[in-house]
Amino acid sequence: MTAPHEPFAGFDRTRAAGPGGAGWAEPAAGVRAWVRDLLLGARFAAGGGREGWTRTVLTAVGVALGVALLLLASAVPAMMDARDQRRVARDTLSSGEAVQPGASTFLLAETNTTYHGKDITGVLLHPEGPAAEPPPGLAAMPPAGRMVVSPALKKLLASSPLLRERIPYEITGTIGKAGLMGPADLYYYAGSDQLVAYGAGQAGGNAERETRFGAHSNSEVLGAVFNLLLVMVLVVLLLPVAVFVATAVRLGGERRDRRLAALRLVGADIRMTRRVAAGEALFGALFGLLLGAAFFLIARQFASHITIRDISAFPSDLTPSPALTVLIAVAVPVAAVAVTMLSLRATVIEPLGVFRQGVGQRRKLWWRLLVPAAGLALLIPLFGSVQGDARTNQYQIATGTVLLLVGVTAVLPWLVESVVGRLRGGPVAWQLATRRLQLNSNASARMVSGVTVAVAGAIALQMLFGAVSADFVYDTGADPARAQILIAASTTSSEETAHDIRQLAGTKGVRQVIGYLQSQATQPDAASRGGSVSDSAYLPVNVGDCASLRELAAIGADCEPGSTFLVPPSHGVGVEESLQYLEPGHRIDLNVGYGDRYSGTPVLWTIPAGTRTVAGRVDPSGSREWGILATPEAIDSNRLFDARSQIMVAVDDREPEAVEYVRNTAAGFGVTTYTRSISGTSAKASYTQLRRGLFAGATLTMVLIGASLLVSMLEQLRDRRKLLAVLVAFGTKRSALAWSVLWQTTIPVVLGLVLACAGGVGLGAALLAMVGSPFHMDWGGMATMAAIGSAVVLGVTLLSLPPLWRLMRPDGLHTE
Amino acid sequence: MSIGHTLLGLLESGPRHGYDLKRAFDERFGHDRPLAYGQVYSTMARLLKNGLVEVDGIEPGGGPERKRYAITDAGVTDVESWLAQPEKPEPYLQTTLYTKVVLALLTGRPAADLLDSQRAEHLRLMRELTRRKSGGDLADQLICDHALFHLEADLRWLELTAARLDQLAAEVTR
Amino acid sequence: MTAAPEPLLVATDLRKAYGPTPALDGAELTVRAGEVVAVMGPSGSGKSTLLHCLAGIVTPDSGDVRYRGQQMSLMSDGERSALRRTDFGFVFQFGQLVPELTCLENVAMPLRLAGRRRKDAEALAATWLERLEVTDLAGKRPGEVSGGQGQRVAVARALVGAPRVVFADEPTGALDSLNGERVMRLLTDAAHDTGAAVVLVTHEPRVAAYSDREIVVRDGKSRDMERAA
């Protein structure tokens, strides 16, 4: 490439290097000179008409968004800490020892439910003495039948009569902030007189006896993978913002350089122009800093409306640490000035014009590849190590990732230059665009580097999400076609279960209900054998009617009241001992006893002779039962030890609220009843939200970058208005010029996106290797990101068309 | 232009007949107006009288055209001092034109038309000179350019006067 | 070329105002095939506006421009643009060459805009560069050539499409006398050779002297000196 505009490059350096030149021009630039020049720069930034303001505001907005994001990021640790403290404060810790009732003890049982996918936690309380302390956020223990709810739940209850039916307690107040982790918490404390303390070894009862709220801190372990995700999201969102801030500070650089050249003409020396430029950048950055603080404060107010991974935060929780705040306040303006100085280093501002250096030589690829290579070198030792609860070096991950992503932007100018330099021919619009890019591929590469980083990071994260969600979204083996809700109750009887089943069957929208009792038995000589209970045989016993038993095993049509069946386990590992008792005619002991040692008296029962052995079958909830299957007529359920019921309900698809009706019915079954829905996969909603957040962040970043692309495009068009007018005079079609604008944006962005895809997949592969997942392409995510990128290009082009039309008016032909 | 000095200068390269002198003059300088014979002889007579030339010989047959002239030392000195002497920069007042404009204004005639037709006339001449220039050699071009620049200067004056006609009218008719 | 029968461009009673100030206030002009018409007048007299109206770049507020009998104000913008591509050529004072394109590509551009293939267009452009004695500039960018050279490239570009009318707005305005004269001679000679008419806006009498006749614009009114005479 030739360098037509650089005939005098280096001219001034030689002159300024002379001792005389430096001597008289600016004797030891004192503080006053600095202040004067900085103020002059600030005046340029603040003045300069509408255009000048637009540019300054854009710079400021770019910086502000960066600052706001940084402040937000710096507030996260404090927020998590505050949440954690409040979580611990309302937790109760079961000591495991039986607490004797006293003046300050109370009974507590958790009753959780789900409404339209939202998890609601309920705590039933019953004070046993006058001194029982209420939970945090409550003034007093709620009396029986009354409850205190979180504000979010209060709102939900008010708008959902169906849920109100399920949680019918009279609302007497709301939980204070001290008792909530976040504003979106769905939580209630209700007084209940139905609570009975568990006996020793949790025999009988339905509630814990506690002395106070507030457990010892046992910080939630999120796991290495979650930490990796967090680090990645921060890097992927912050890095493009950093790149954007860097480009925002350079916005309007060409015009500024010309202004500085005019200053040189009236006698400013090089250092003075640098200080003026610094003043300009500083003004934008300081303005941005204030704006960023404002953005942050505004965003903070909205924090209570946002829930990410079930985490919501009070605005007051989002308080950045003072040290980090000071660091941000200092680092951002300093970085702005540093970027300006760096960009000026390659520019020689002469009285008669601006010359750029270093355009002559071709870019070299090898050192640009060193950057991502260094990043990869940092990540490779971590391959396979980010699993489970392993501690990982987050700094190493962050540095490696940043280097990899920055490496992508380092390669970009080389790529743009090499590709654009090879473009030839084509229609006029294409020719105009490619030639323009050839002359200044640097600027366009810089403009799209933000897009590239954002997309590369997002693609890598997408891949990681894909793999990680496989960890969290797993096949439960359940068959939601057979039943949709599972209701389990502990300590029950077949009469109770039958009652429950009748109730459920009568509930609106229910198609079919099956249910059985689950218990266990052991070898007949367990009582006399001594030793630990866990050393004795383990023999599951399931009692239900024929229809229910058919869901558990392939018993066929041959079943009538009084039938029994034997089901071998699907794999005999660890149960060989038990299998010898599973024979017709064998006697077994239906009493197992709580605790480690056998207790109580043996309840012996003989497996009837002629009991068929049948193959097991996966039940609707996905589990596979084995052992003894019997109809209620074969075993008196009252003889069963600690029987638990398993009721599965199939609902009618045509009744959308059927599930909620079933839950309401089940809510009346008592504290010990537990309800959950049966689904083929179990997903954590949290990751969906994090994923959505990533998309939103990436889109926002790209829109920002689009805005700066637009501004530089408009600036360029305005600088070329004379030329545009001439082209119009020649009869150039508007469409041709529009196409050339489109190409001019598209070519660098497409190159950027291609590089981003390559870099993103590379980083993604590295991340997958770190968590030990097999390589897996996320084509959908990649296509989405590419689509967002393309939309940005299209948007920029469309938005620059109206000004283009306006500039194409013949006024431009008037000689100034 | 001083014809005397020009003829003297032509003689410096060697003695010439009056007839030769006229031809040499016309060839180099007489594009617009060829020299009349009478003017050559009257000029030569004056130069002879002043001792700047002398008669080098007379061809047989008589008549002034037969005389061959040569430059004298005094003549050479005279040419030298003429060349060394810068021309007095003439304040080239368009006296006639100015008079016409003022008269037109005074008598209420359209002075702008007068200026416009004068401009057309100037441009017509300039066009002719431009055409001649493109056909001629370097000498032609330089001479034409000289005239063109002068005419341009006149034209600029016309332009300026036209722009100030109202002002002038106000002053003249006061 | 004085009395060609066919009037190519006829403008009658053109009026055009930019805001409150009238740029044209009843201007008229006739251009015949092959003639060079100088539009003269002081700065701000409306010369350029007249040229823009004639070329169909600007639509006059009132009045009428007919090109070969067709009323330009009745044409659509697309038709006028097409006309400028095929029938008109333009030379401006400066800043008219696309800085990213080489001189050859600049000259070839009008042909390419009119739909010619690149190779043909550039071959023809090369002959025009030769004709304007700037062959050696073919591969250079406008930033690398002198003002006079650039104007010669611009003249080549104006003439390459064999236009019927070349509009030249102060084509020598940024040049010294010698370069200006050279550009003017090349422009008028080439126009004569191709039979193109030239509408030449200038305030320099010596440049106007390359015309066949002149029009004087003053305060938005034009006087055809030939008709006046």
From TrEMBL, chain A:
The chain crosses the membrane at residues 57-80, 221-249, 281-303, 323-344, 365-383, 395-416, 445-465, 693-711, 749-771, 783-805. One of its GO terms (molecular function) is transmembrane transporter activity. Keywords: Cell membrane, Membrane, Transmembrane, Transmembrane helix. Residues 232-344, 698-808 form the ABC3 transporter permease C-terminal domain. It is found in: Cell membrane. This is Predicted ABC-type transport system involved in lysophospholipase L1 biosynthesis, permease component. GO terms for cellular component: plasma membrane. It holds the Pfam family FtsX. Belongs to the ABC-4 integral membrane protein family. The keyword Transcription regulation does not apply. It is a multi-pass membrane protein.
UniProtKB/TrEMBL annotation, chain B:
One of its GO terms (molecular function) is DNA binding. Keywords: DNA-binding. InterPro entries: Tscrpt_reg_PadR_N (IPR005149), WH-like_DNA-bd_sf (IPR036388), WH_DNA-bd_sf (IPR036390). Residues 7-77 form the Transcription regulator PadR N-terminal domain. PANTHER family: NEGATIVE TRANSCRIPTION REGULATOR PADR, TRANSCRIPTIONAL REGULATOR YQJI. This is DNA-binding transcriptional regulator, PadR family.
Automatic annotation (TrEMBL), chain C:
SMART domains: AAA (SM00382). Keywords: ATP-binding, Nucleotide-binding, Transport. It comes from the Bacteria. GO terms for cellular component: plasma membrane. Gene3D superfamilies: P-loop containing nucleotide triphosphate hydrolases. GO terms for molecular function: ATP binding; ATP hydrolysis activity; transmembrane transporter activity. Pfam families: ABC_tran. Residues 9-229 form the ABC transporter domain. This is Putative ABC transport system ATP-binding protein. InterPro entries: AAA+_ATPase, ABC_transporter-like_ATP-bd, ABC_transpr_LolD-like, MacB-like_ATP-bd, P-loop_NTPase. SUPFAM superfamilies: P-loop containing nucleoside triphosphate hydrolases (SSF52540). It comes from Actinacidiphila paucisporea.
